[in-house]
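Quarterly update, task 2.4: zinc ion-bound model.
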Amino acid sequence: MHDTRVLVITGAGVSAESGIPTFRGKDGYWRNLDPAKLATPEAFARDPKLVWEWYRERRQRIRNAQPNAAHGAIAKLAQHADEFLLITQNVDDLHARAGLPMEKMVQIHGDIFVTGCCRCDFSYPGRGGSPEPPGAGALQPESGRLRSIAPTSEKDVDLPRCPECDVLMRPGVVWFGEQLPLDELQRVEEYLDGGTCDPVIVAGTTATFGYIIDWALRGRRVGGELVEVNPEETPFSQFATRLVREPAAIALPRLVETLVGRHSPG
Ligand SMILES: [Zn+2]
């Protein structure tokens, strides 16, 4: 693939094929609770223990999951493209574990394995695709910096607290109603400013968020391909130059083979 600049955008549909439930539909419910209502600053303020329990289970589920063929295909495409960026709405580490380097990926909704302070900038890093040290429990921060901290109430006894300012720590994800992380937005803007892309591939996302559609449209080279991979119609479908109505784990390996083959020298 020569002079290729590629943009890929993924959403929950890609992780769903690895067994990570989406927020939508009955499968996404947890203890009869709607995740869309748990993933909010209000829910955390009301009941941090409940919200942490949910994230704890989600982290464990992700640890037990494996990247699927879609993750593998995207990592392969990245290897063959001259320039490549993945924007993923997924907070899991499955793209990284499939071999996609962190510098070629923006997790625009955060990283579930990061544990960050609610007040200051202190955070424990995510897994970054590497195995965790033994004994790193779901709630235990993963660097050794934790001091002995007395919880302020019995109820918060299991909750991580910031070693710098002693307030509660939270999962490093973007909750409903929150701003997208500025440094990650900056990386998206830089990539989009650096030139247009062909192809732009949008896979496994219902494209509910307007910025996802905006980035895909801005990224596209005139005359370039705008591919949607999704079993169902979405608000993005009307803009796509090619619709692939299949699950990402089936469609992407084939699509990537075609792209990599087409651009091979000789
Ligand atoms: Zn702090």
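Highlight for this quarter: Strands lie at 5-10, 83-88, 105-107, 110-117, 123-124, 169-173, 200-203, 226-229, 242-244.
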